[in-house]
Specification:
Blueprint (H helix, E strand, L loop, with lengths): L2 E5 L2 E3 L5 E8 L7 E7 L6 E6 L6 E3 L7 E6 L4 E6 L8 E8 L5 E3 L3 E5 L2
Length: 117
Amino acid sequence: QVQLVESGGGLVQPGGSLKLSCAASGFTFSSYTMNWYRQAPGKERELVTSITRTGEGTDYADSVKGRFTISRDNVKNTVYLQMNSLKPEDTAVYYCNARGLYSQMYWGQGTQVTVSS
């Protein structure tokens, strides 16, 4: 069955870094655009960043541009999110998402990121 398993979340001080991973299985990973979303308490889920199937194209929300980097390994079937210069407003549950050519979508269970001193 399809699985997206996130890891790497946790508590970090402002200005710190975290690297999230999302291991995929049960579908043809290289055929899917991969995305990271996040949802803060009381807010709607928002798209943070995307990476194309080959990894050649990326896109970022303005709020994370220059601080976050998405990457993928189509051999390991894993997508990563390197988060630097973290701010308290980055606190959220981060979700891995896969979107196929025909808009089929899969979601991970989420991983909590808390930025606090």
